[in-house]
Fold each of these.
Amino acid sequence: MSLSRSRTSCVIAATASALAVLTACGGSGADSANKPAGPVTITFWGWAKGSKDVVDAFNASHTDIQVKFEEIPSGTAGGYAKISNAVKAGNAPDLVSIEYSSLPEFVSSGALQDIGDQFTEADRAKLLPQSVELTTLGGKSWAVPFDAAPQAFFYRKDLFATYKVQAPATWDEFRKAAEQVKKADAKARIATFFPDDPTTFEAMAWQAGAQWFKAENDTWKIDTTDAATTKVAAYWQGLLDDGLVHKNASFSPEWTGSLKNGTTIGYLGASWGAGVLKGTLPEQSGKWAVAPMPSWDGKPASGMLGGTSFAVTKDSKQKAAAVTFAEWMSTTEEGVKARIASGTSSAFPAAAALRPVAKKAFDASYYGGQDIYALFEASGASINPNWAWGPTTGTTNTTIKDHFGKITQGGPGITDAVKAGHDATVAELTKRGLKVEG
Amino acid sequence: MKARTRAAAILLTPFFVLFTAVMVVPIGYAVWLSLFTEKQSGLGFGGTETIFTGLDNYTAALGDRAFREGFGVLLGYCLFYIPLLLVGALGLALLLDSALARARRFFQLALFLPHAVPGIIAALIWVYLYTPQLSPVVKAMEAGGIGFDFFSPEGALPSIVNIALWEWLGYNMVIFYAALQAIDRSVLEAATVDGAGAWRIAFSIKVPLVKASLAMVGLFTVIGSLQLFTEPLILNKGTGSAVTSTWTPNMYAYTAAFDRNDYGLAAAASVLLALTAALLSFAVTRLTARNRKGKAA
């Protein structure tokens, strides 16, 4: 049993010892570079596609600032835990990637610093207002938005044609299309419900006009059971109950496998998904097309699914250099070009002026030369500006994910999961000493 | 005498240094952390303030249904897993001990091999075998008319038990086999002379003689089960299965720290779990000690 014994000792201290050790060897690499002469070196943690190429391009063209890039797992796959721990231990990098949904959580845990003095009003004016709004919390500016992630529907145009299905413009049509696909091929489905990924569902609720987190007079108003969310939940429950969509984990081998063998012929994702599909299924080049997200009334509408910003950690002494680099990535032609030209990124820049650059750099032959950036542009403009994220995204999403996993025919459903997320959010905010209504 | 004391001190120092560094200090730090909570004010964007909250984190953990349900899952896991493990491992050991003399070495190695695979790898392999559209096993089962969803709420526990069995069966079989080998052969010969068959020898002589190792394996497995973490975590991440992020108490602590950013709560949950493990270990040592005493008397 010696093995399980050693496991025991590891686990007893699982949460604590790692921190203790980290604290002991604290003192970041960034500080040592704080010499008067020579270039300033900053460290940057991220996972977005093409980050390495961007850093290389920056380093090649700059002598005053040099960036050390370290790739970390994507946020919810462990990246956020890594960042939080590093901040707690005092050896965090200067600049980190954080998605809009998690930014308030990092701000409220005191992990970041206000960059309003470096990242000015004039800089912000160049960017998509919805993205700027999501990085402005409590009247302060906390991060440089990189992209907006308007929703989009990716589909196999060859199979849609074979099955004589039209790309749906409304959710009613989407359901009909789903029925047609299933009828044409009993194994094929139009899309997938991701039980492991509440953010896709949240983007749908966002699109429908939901507002889960509202900050008013120093009080959080939590409402995940409003009419819009209830409508979306009931709609998806219906698709699940009637077996019109697959239920697989996102980006799992199961999901990719079904895309490869043509039993999943559509993907409800966001702008960055164009690069993901291209990278995951290179052999299906030319077979895919992109359509705007179906909407409830046929008018363009979108939520935001993901989307990255760059934030400076609390203890960084290189704020100016870090913000300079972040702005270079987000707002300069070279920065955006370097990322997109890496081939795997189809990011939709928050900076309006740079979208033509991104469009030019992205090889759209995978989509038969379709002007996907024009589509993202229209979708991006239709992003519902009312949505805000709360400071408990971790708790909210973990709870919803746990309950999504329990969805069974005749058992608990999506509505129950969303309600559980609501309750957990309210409890968490209360525990932190914040005022909550909901 | 003096030299002996010095030698003892020198030889024991590395142990105590390591023990302090990797056991005492982390546990002390966990206890310390568990007494504090990070509080915020307003909308929470003004940063946090760490406040001494005494035992609040403990009451919060104990008051959380998810944490208590974790212990329920462990109980169900033990009731399901331990009988299967004991019967399976002992049965295999008995087989090896009696009939298959020539194939003994091969089976010993083959059965032990899964234990050499790290738990995380084992879990990844099994997740693949459980995944409906990928797995040849699920395909074969469906062809045979058995539809079973390993990721469903009903399937979660059997799925984990199966992985654990695969990992630990061979290991425990070796323990039982060693105990069986230690049995005085003359006893077995006497039984054969008296006309006892193989079954009779197995159940009336061999099993009673290895009862002590049976008890030891059983109790250690209970304590080991408290630490259940890796396998369910893999099933939780990226499968969309019914294994929740707080499925076992260990996972509860992990999620509290790394998904919810509540280190105080995580520390409190860890300390509670450690206490449970300590109490159980204490009970086990007392029990086995009494057993030994009883035998000596």
Amino acid sequence: MDNEYKWLPELEGTVPKEAYGYAISNYAIAYEAWRRGLNITFEKVYHNRGMFIPKYTIYSKNNKVQFSHTRPHLVSKQAIKICVNKQLTREALDKENIPVPKGMLLKSLDETYIKKATSGLNFPLVVKPLNGRGGRGVITGIDDFVELKENIQYLKNELNFDQIIVEEYIQGEDYRAFVIGDKVVGAFRRLPPHVIGDGKNSIKKLMKSKNDIRVKIPGTYNMRVIINKEIKRELRKQNYTLNSVPSRGQFVRLKTKNNVSSGGDPIDATDELPEEIKNNLVKAVKAIPGLIQGGVDVIYDKKTGRYAILEINTKPSIRNHLYPIKGNAHEIPKAIIDYYFPETKGNYLSKTTPKYYFDYLFVTKYIRNNRLEKFTLPPHPYEPNLDSKLISFKSNKELTRVKQLIRSTFHKLKFNGEMNLIRSGEYELIVAGNYQDIDFFIDKLRSNRLLSEVQFYNYAGPVRIGFTFNNKSMSDPLRLIEENENLNKKVKQLEKELNQLKNSKSWKITSPLRKLKRKREK
Amino acid sequence: MNKGYPYWLSKQMLSGVRRFDIDAFLVALEGWRRGLSLKFYYDPSTVTDLKIIGYNQIGKAFSLSSGDKTHYFYRTRGDKVSNEATDIGTDKARAKEYLMKANVPTPGGFTFNKSMDIDSVVNKALKLGFPLVLKPTLGSLGKGVVTDINTEKYLRESISYCYSEFDYEEFIIERHVEGEDVRVYVIKDEVVGAIKRTSANVTGDGKLTLDELIDHKNEQRRLNPQTSTRLIKKDTGLTNFLTRHNLTLDYIPEKGKTVYLKGQSNISSGGDSVDTTDELSHDVKKTAIQAVKEIPGLNHAGVDLIVNNENAYIIEINSTAGISLHTFPVHGKPRNIAKDIIDYYFPETKGKGDNSTKIYFDYKNILELLRSNSVKQLEVSDAPVGELYAKRYVISGKVQKVGYRRWIRKQAIENGLHGYTRNLNNGKVVVVVAAVEKDKVNNFKRTCYEGPERAEVTNVKEYLWDKQIRVGFEIRKQKKKF
């Protein structure tokens, strides 16, 4: 799977770990705006499916847009109401002759009513809750009326949904497109959670190695596919267990749901969708009064060319467009800011290196904990004669004194960057600022009696704005602990081998000999 | 000696907050506790023309607002003090002119600058008569102040000492007035606090040397947030003073004998503070009030006086006066000057913060954010207004590694509760929640029993909690076992 993808260069090294996962959507949008000199204020969080998502306002002197995750306040309440309700969405799209699955909202869950209402639909069918989220309660592949009845009962009794939709199942693959204005900016195809056999490893092992990759990708950061009943059931259906070793190239499905958050894989598919579908995706967003932008779910069968739009999300995550597992990332944040702040199109404050970025810890540490109500980011630095250096030096003076010296100079010369304590007495600085100021700064460091061995190198990596101090020498004890743990592991391994040896036949057979030896020694 | 903190503050609230940051914090905290919304600014010039003075300015500029009304503050000085008044206050010579014009008593003296011939300065000074005081016109914190000048030789030495040791250009020489050194805080027509200051001193026990006694005294000073960073320094000023009194650091004073160590009675240079608000005479108070009135646009300030029986002389007026010396006097009753300042700016909120003694915001972290230039401006979450009621719940069962704390945080924040949660080493989880409404806190016990899907709660024990509460609700790290 190595390097089958191309992600956005501007997000390389500029997304702090705290912003990984769900938060990447709003970080990437705010970051795009910030690079163009727009102001950004983050505000209190709201809860969405257990996730904390902050609201943030992007503004210039004459323009102001408030975002809730990826949705601007300009999207009307009416549009949100229609999109939340899958039946209203279907009706709005159908009116504009945009293909949707044939189906309806059940007005009653009475058997005779269901029979009559669904009589015009062709099996296989799908049932789903009217206001469901994240694929919860969506049941596909219903082949007859008995199954339909059972599944409706299941949704009603087990999952407590009473507003249920029945519709025809559309054969094809599952796509999500991001539409803004007149454009489909990006689309990805969702593969259900799966592993691909290599003829050597068990499904369990394959899942583990897949998870190891997954948790490192910023978009799916720390989102492991966890072995649960659903996966076991799905494997059983395919006559597998977790210990089965699928043959090389064998596609083993783990879940029926395709959501990336439950383990699906996003694959860039922007070029896979034909123009006609794209036109209809744009039309679909326009068919909802007051919508402007949205994430449109569409099922499309490449072989037959058939497709249908399932739903529109007003607040779609864009992280899968930014971090597909295969294919190219698409510039959704750019399209969003271009749309709402057209006057800033192409006006980046810094086109040269280093790339500045901002921290996100203030959200996780302060705003999420309700310690701060609002947080306005410092503006993106503007410096036409920008230079950036990595400087190393040594000093025997107390840390606080050295830190104070560096911090105050950073402040005076309006530098951005960081100071790292490598190990006791050894420091490293990353500095970005005016090139003359940096020369002056290096001279000053070299002539300072408290410091020695001042050396500098060119630096083109990302620079976090502000001044950060990192104590990297702190990781030394951690390294020791790690080494200790490794040693312990080795000891356990040896003990295990020893036990195996003791229990082995040859050991048991030779036992009388050892007794004899011991006696002789006595 | 006062140990500990006045009832409306605690050590935790001020942890990591030092010197002038304390003054800013006290005013901001008082306003915020009354329900005013509080914002801090990295660069206040983007929102207000309020004059910013001094070193280390970051983090001391903030605004308080209710509805449409906003007031900006720098440390203790708000926008009801005009910038002109601030300028006059920092220039001792100009302040003196204003006071003399209005016949407010000040010690006789004159201004001179480095370019002037020393001989003519000395001649002019001799006309005033000894003892004399020498100080820079723009100085603060007792820096460059020489007192107790009694001979021409010492006068010449002092002038050349000030020329060589400090960057100041302009100085004042004035008649040293005998008496007690008192700092008074005036708001409009009222003296809201008065502190008597003694110069740095130690009291002997017949065994320890001055050197050791100073170390002991400094240990005590470290416990008081106001004096902890203002220790008695064994500097040249101190040794010179001792030499002039024929003393050395090796000297062992007899038991009960107080030895003064410095001429100037400034807390910054190691002096003691004693609250004397109730003892100060009516006339002295009137003089202080008049002094503030004579500086146009000043309205509230700290006034330094020398009090000699019923007579008071104004030494200096400070428009950005510290209030922590009133809040944390070494001896006597602590005064909440911040309360009087907020009363003056937001009279409609009077009394609203009286029962708020437990809630605080983490100023230390805010300072860090501002100092590292990683925020332009920020707003602190609103404080619950009124007397806090808090409980500490200890939850047992299968409550760790099941997302219990994250779930609890969500519930707490949604219910408007403040506090924290933490895993205990014995497998239990502790939850501290506080609110003004008792019901909310008591009902949260049920929420603790409920827990997230994966948790199995077997028991919830409750305890009353009467310690401070930081605004917001956070997940705290488990304490290490060793």
Amino acid sequence: MSVDQATVRRVAHLARIAVTEDEVAHLQGELNAILAFVDELGEVDTTDVEPMTSVIPMQLPLRADVVDDGFYPDRVLANAPLAEDGFFAVPKVVE
Amino acid sequence: MSDLTRLTVTAAREGLAQGHFTATELTRAYVEAVEAAGALNAFVLATPERALDMARASDERIAKGEAGRLEGIPLGIKDMFATNGVRTTACSNIIGNFVPPYESTVTSQLWRDGAVLLGKLNQDEFAMGSSNESSAFGPVVNPWRRGGSTQPLVPGGSSGGSAAAVAAHICAAAAGTDTGGSIRQPAAFTGTVGIKPTYGRCSRWGIIAYASSLDQAGPIARSVNDAALLLGSMAGHDPKDSTSANLAVPDYEAAVGASVKGKRIGIPREYRVEGMSSEIVSLWDKGAQMLRDAGAEVVEISLPHTKYALPAYYIVALAEASSNLARYDGVRYGERVPGRDIAELYEKTRASGFGAEVRRRIMIGTYVLSAGYYDAYYLKAQKVRTLIKRDFENAFAEGIDAVLAPATPSAAFGIGEKSSGDPVEMYLQDVFTVTLNMAGLPGIAVPAGLSSEGLPLGLQLIGRPFGEESLFSLAQVIEDAAGRFDVTDKWWR
């Protein structure tokens, strides 16, 4: 499979990464090189093979549904580029 | 006192216990060595004051007879590990000023056992690379050079700063991470020992995530015994990581030097890839002979899906990365580039904060997970992963205790040699290492010889799940037979 420039722009938008027009052609070439490389997998017969979903066979652990951490908004917000009144601040999202 | 940096962790521990020198003296020697090694660019942040404070506390505990097993040992920590109050960046501009308010489980266990933090080590951005050239802090220079040449070589990656610092004796040992070979390939390029333990052996809590089903922490050290000592401290169950294995941690040091008589070692014929250098082939044969001489039985085996591990890895790793790295949005941490609305803020922040390789990997990952392609790529890769794991399970079921393979297809290459052209060429660096991450198995890289140009070459031993002890026993056989490899020309000083 190979991607065209419209797909590169769509994927960049899905990934929330701005791309300039100059970058699109370059990225298209790079993405197609990588996709050509992984296309090899098409040769493998995976009929009746289960996809791997757990690396080490183990039961997912459960814990009591209680709050056991938190209550320090200052520490949580310490690295925020913009914070106000104990919240992360962003441009207006809902009019 | 600069001779103190020559000591392995094991020897330094002995010297501290005997009172031949103090933790403060040992730490000061390393602090000075770090300061003198700027040309390597191995550390992205040195913490000399904290190191000396920790060393003083170690001296007090030693005096009181309360020394931990790593008491007073100065370590470097890859910048993937969150360190409380100490800047942690993954060597990316997008979190270039991030100061974690928490400590990763693995590093907290190292401090619990008395180790001293010398600083944070350079790496490829978000651990995405095999040469340490994608770091926002610039490339690391390998302390090794080809005989008669001053050309700067890469230390491998992504734990390139860790491996270079250990090889240059500017830290006693280091904590690294390995998603597709990021501990073992740089260890091989620098003549050091690196182990990626079984998935689940070390907690991933507080380690910046790249590909969660593949990432594992592990040590890089100057001897097999040092690596065993470090792993014993780093490993263990952690309720904060739901994939962490609830198993007791064995005494890995006790396994070093244990007999390997009667162990069955598999040589996978599929690892004889086209274009492999004749030096690597002969190193591999020599390694097999070393194990035979120690009483192990070496047999040829088949791991038929080997050639598909690398393409499947790039789908799984990049898909997981695109999901994990979605959190870097300029809202909760990191640099923010303003936009007219929230979407533009995200897009501009991520375009500016991520480097080229990271942007490329996120986009591939996004593509393979996008509507209409999920089955063709991601699901297919996860099925291939089942087959890769089954190959190993079949070999183990036939009585194979460990697999011997090269660690890398070549010795260290020059800075800039592979970074300009086709990204796939760099990806091929991981051809011998990714299979283990895909199968969740442990692997150790141990230096086994020098190339004709005088560069270190490494072999890799692959074990059964949670079979790290066997790997330490077998790796020690290679270390005993091949010797240890130290840089003789300290040109950076």
